[in-house]
Design a protein that fits this description.
With about 240 residues, the protein is of the alpha+beta class. It contains five helices and eight strands, in the order ααβββαββαβαββ. The strands form two sheets. A five-stranded antiparallel sheet has the order 1-2-3-5-4. The chain is elongated, with a radius of gyration of 31 Å.
Length: about 240
């Protein structure tokens, strides 16, 4: 028998992160209750950590170091950019649109009473016309499909790089193995090295190499001086006749 906590964790795992439903139900583009007299004080931001009401840009200072997404409008419907939301949830099976050169996804359903002629695919929840490769027109419709019991649908990210506690996993993998190590060299060795780019780090000089033994330490051949390229001396200037 599952405890209430256990049932809550299972529901969150199946229906998505706990901030998803509050984000879909929040009221956007209304005047801010605190900064209503200021310019551009409409509430178009949502904090995924606080999961409260939408807020304006002046309130953003109260959500420092939080995960915040900006909600936008298209044809009187709330949308969010794909590059912002896909960092936190899996939006597969939801059709995306390009508006003002940016790829977006709608938050909630957009019912369409009569699909156009020749339409072969519609949203499984609100019957909105879709391309053949998608099942839902919005995040809310995908959530509705998950509530129907479709276990193939999920909002959980399957990317191994997103493993922190906010995305439902551990810390991301370190990339130190791909960073070349710096080898310290002496000033005498630096003078002998020719053609290598040296970098400064804390007052000491280093050069990047995978194998110190393979470096060529012989002095380079001096360049050949071409006398033909030398600048010729000008002759004695003559004053023009009056």
């Amino acid at each position: 028998m599952l405890t209430p906590v256990g049932r809550m964790e299972d529901d969150e795992m199946f229906l998505g992160p706990p901030w998803l439903i509050p984000m879909l139900k929040a009221s956007y583009f209304v005047p801010c209750a605190i900064h209503g007299d200021a310019n551009k004080s409409e509430c178009n931001l949502f904090c995924l950590d606080c999961m409260g009401n939408a807020f304006c840009s002046y309130c953003l200072i109260n959500h420092r170091d939080h995960h915040v997404v900006q909600i936008r409008r298209s044809s009187y419907h709330n949308v969010v950019r794909v590059n912002e939301i896909q960092k936190y949830i899996d939006i597969s099976a939801v059709q995306t649109y390009i508006i003002n050169s940016a790829k977006i996804v709608f938050l909630n359903e957009r019912p369409q009473p009569r699909p156009g002629k020749g339409v072969t695919n519609t949203c499984e929840i609100c019957c909105r016309s879709l391309l053949d490769s998608f099942r839902f027109c919005s995040l809310g419709c995908k959530l509705g499909g998950m509530r129907r019991g479709d276990r193939d649908l999920t909002f959980a990210l399957r990317n191994k790089h997103n493993r922190d506690s906010f995305h439902g996993g551990g810390e991301s993998e370190s990339d130190e193995s791909s960073t070349p190590k710096k080898v310290r060299v002496t000033p005498v060795f630096n003078r002998m090295m020719d053609g290598l780019t040296l970098s400064s780090d804390g007052g000491e000089r280093y050069w990047s190499s995978g194998d110190e033994g393979t470096a060529n330490i012989s002095p380079s051949t001096p360049p050949i001086y071409n006398h033909r390229n030398a600048r010729r001396r000008k002759g004695i200037p003559h004053r023009a006749p009056f």
